[in-house]
Specification:
75 residues; mainly alpha
């Protein structure tokens, strides 16, 4: 992903993390609470098989839709 799109996605991921603050279900692995920012980044990496910076530019809309899905369906 080019630098401009990478920055755009990073800002979008941060906004999604803000929306998920306090909304992720508890986990026994995270007794002090879950980090929504890390959750978004990990889910994107798991779904696309690479970090958001490595995803091709032509998939940026797909990444944004997936981030929206994560916000709408906290897990």
């Amino acid at each position: 992903m080019n630098e401009e799109n990478s920055k755009k996605i990073w800002v979008y991921m941060q906004g999604a993390g803000d929306k998920l603050l306090g909304k992720l279900p508890p986990s026994r692995y995270h007794p002090k609470g879950r980090n929504p920012y890390a959750h978004i980044a990990i889910c994107v990496k798991k779904k696309f098989g690479q970090s958001y910076k490595e995803i091709p530019d032509n998939r940026i809309d797909e990444v944004i839709r997936y981030i929206d899905y994560l916000v709408e369906n906290p897990s």
